[in-house]
Amino acid sequence: MALTMTAKRRLVTTALLAPASVWLFVFLVLPFIAMVIFSVGERGPAGGYQAAFTFAQYANLPARAAAYWNTLLLAPVGAFFCLVVAYPTAYYLAVKASPRHRLLLVSLVVVPFWTSLLVRTYAWMYILGSRGIPNLLDMIGIADVRLLNTPGAVLLGIVYGYLPLMIMPIYVSLEKLDRRLLEASADLGAKPVSTFFSVTLPLSLPGVMTGVALVTILLLGEYLIPQLLGGGKVFFIGNALVDLFLQSRNWPFGSAIAVTLVAIVVVVLMVAMRIAWRISGTRQVDLI
Amino acid sequence: MISAPTNDIEFRSVTKRYGAVTAVSDINLTVPKGAFVALLGPSGCGKTTCLRMIGGFEQPSEGEVLIAGKVANGVPAYRRPVNMVFQQYALFPHFDVEKNVAYGLKQLRPKLPVAEISRRVGEALEMVRLSGFAKRRIHEMSGGQQQRVALARALVNKPSVLLLDEPLAALDKKLRTAMQIELQTLQRDLGITFVLVTHDQEEALSMSDLVCVMSAGRIRQLATPQEVYDRPADLFVADFVGKTNRFDGTLEAGGTVRLGNGAALPVSRKDLAPGAVTVALRPEAIRLSRGTGNAATLEGTVTHRIFLGSAAEYSIAIDGLGDMLVTAERQTQNDLVAPGERVAISFDPGTAHIFPA
C-alpha cells in the first residue's frame, strides 16, 4: 500500500506527538477539567465533593487572601532576587570564563540539583535556626536575632533553590549572543558599559524572561520552602491547597483556589512573552 | 611645520601569535591616504587578522600598527577613527535600520543634538539609497539591503579608514557585481581609505588600487591589480591570482627553457641563472593554431572545450607534458577547435613567467 508523501509525513508527525499528547491529556487536561467542575461544586457533609453549580467557592476566595498575597508578592520578588544573583553569574560563565573552565563551572551550577531540595532546605533550617547563625551572632553580642520562620528566610530559600533555573536560560542566551555584535558596538565607538546596556542586555532579555517566567511560575505553586523556612507563618497558596485537600477536605474551595492560580499563571506567561517579543525584536523567543 | 601623515595605515614588523600558532609574521605595510587596498589570500593567510588589528579587535604580539601616523597599539576599538563592515554585517537585530545607523552617532561625546543625528542618519541612508527603509527591522531586509545598512552604519561617523571584511561574500553574483561598482564609486566620492579583505581575486582585482597578496601570514606581493596579474612576484601569486599553467623545466644559457618533453621554448629572462625553473603561463597568453607547428611550439590534442560565447576555453593534452588550459578569443565564427583535433600552441617569450624552482 503506497502512502503519499504528505500522508506519510502526517502519520510521522502524529506518531511523534502522540505520547506527549496522551500524557498531557490524561495528566493535565482531564485533572484540570475535574478541578474546574469541583470548583463550582459544594463540600460534601463528610468533606470531599458534592455535585452543584455555584460560584460560592470563588466568592469565598478572599478568605485565603493572605496566601495569595504571600504568593503573589514573594514569587515575583523571589524571581527578582534570583535574577539579580543569576545574571552576573551567567554573564561570567558565558562571556568571561575561559572556554576550558566553562563546562566545569556550568556543571557546578547544576550539581546541587542532584541532591534533594528537601535535604538542602533542611540544611538551611539548621543554618538559620537558633543553633546556626543566630547562635554565632549571640556569641559576638548580638542577641535575639530571629532568622528562621520569617519572610526573609523564605526568600533566601527561594533564591537558593531556584538559582540554577534562572542561571541556565540566561547563560544560554548570552552564550549564543553573536560576539561580532559586541565588536560592532565597540567599533562604532561604544564603551564597554554602553555596549552592555545597548546590545548585550537587550539581546539576552529572552533568556531573562524565560528564567523569570520559569521561576515565578514554579514559585506560585511552591509548598516546601514556605513550610520549612516559613514555619507556617509565611503561608503560600501551595500550603493552602495542601490544607484544604488533605486536612479540611474542602475540595471545591481548594479547586477554586487552584483554578484561579492557573488563570493567573497563564496571564503572567502571556504578558511576559509579549514583552520579550517586543524588546528583542524577534518572534523566536523560546519561553520555556 | 609638521606635515600631515600621508599614510593612513602602517604596519611596522607586525607579528601576531595565538599560542603556538603564528597568524601574521613580520609584516610591513603602508596604505596611502585615500587608497583602496585589498588584502587578498586564501583562508588562514592572516588577512583577517591584519584587518582586526587595524580595527582594534586584536593587538599585535610584536611590532606596531599606526593609524593616521599614530601608534595604535593598546588603543581600544571604541577609540579608533576606523569603522568596519563586518562579515555577515553584524547588524543589531533588536534595532530598526535607523537606530542601527544612528548607533555610532549616539556614542559621540559631547552628545549630538537629536536633530543633527537624524539629519546625518538621513544623509547616510540616502547615500546607500535606503531612504524609505528607516523604520524597517533588520530581518525584514534582503542581503543586499543589509549590506548597505552596514555600509551606512560604518560610514556615518566619517571614519578616516573603512575596513571591509569579506563584505560581498554573502551576496549572489549579480548583486556582488553591482555592489563592487557601488563600493568603488563610494570610495572615490568620499575619498576615505578602504581596506578590503577578500579571498576572491576577481573582487580584489576589480575594485582596488592596490592588491596585497598574502599567504601563510606573510605578504607575497603589494602592487596594482595589473602588476599583480601581469608580473606576479612569485609562483604563489601567479597561481592564486587568475588561472595559470605551470610546467617544470630547465633554464638554459641563451634564454631557452627545456621542458620535460624535450621541447625548448624561448623566454625573455636573461637575468636568471641557468637551472631548474617553473614556467607559468596565463591561458589567454597562449596562441592556438590547427595542425603542426615548428621548433618553438608545443603540440597536443584538444580534450575538452568550454564555450564561453566571446571566447572558448580549451583543455589540451600537450604531448609528453600534461594538460594545459588555453583561452582563445574568437576572431571569426568558424575558428572553434573541436575536441580530438591536433593543435600547436605558442606564446610570446615576454608573457611567460619564469620562477626559480
From TrEMBL, chain A:
Q: What residue intervals traverse the membrane?
A: 12-38, 67-91, 103-127, 153-174, 195-220, 251-273
Gene3D superfamilies from the entry?
Answer: MetI-like (1.10.3720.10)
According to Swiss-Prot or TrEMBL, what is its membrane topology? Multi-pass membrane protein
InterPro entries (UniProt xref): MetI-like, MetI-like_sf
Q: Where in the cell is it found?
A: Cell membrane
ABC transmembrane type-1 domain location is: 68-272
The stretch of residues making up the signal peptide is none
> Sorted alphabetically, which keywords does the UniProt record give?
Cell membrane, Membrane, Transmembrane, Transmembrane helix, Transport
Cell membrane among keywords: yes
Describe the family membership recorded for this protein in Swiss-Prot or TrEMBL.
Belongs to the binding-protein-dependent transport system permease family. CysTW subfamily.
Protein known as: ABC transporter permease
Automatic annotation (TrEMBL), chain B:
| The family this protein is said to belong to | Belongs to the ABC transporter superfamily.
Write the protein's name: ABC transporter ATP-binding protein
InterPro entries assigned: AAA+_ATPase, ABC_SmlMolc_Importer, ABC_transporter-like_ATP-bd, ABC_transporter-like_CS, Mo/tungstate-bd_C_term_dom, NA-bd_OB-fold, P-loop_NTPase, Transp-assoc_OB_typ2
Report domain ABC transporter positions. 9-241
Species for this entry: Shinella curvata
Q: Which UniProt keywords apply?
A: ATP-binding, Nucleotide-binding, Transport
What Pfam families has UniProt attached to this entry? ABC_tran, TOBE_2
Q: Which GO terms describe its molecular function?
A: ATP binding
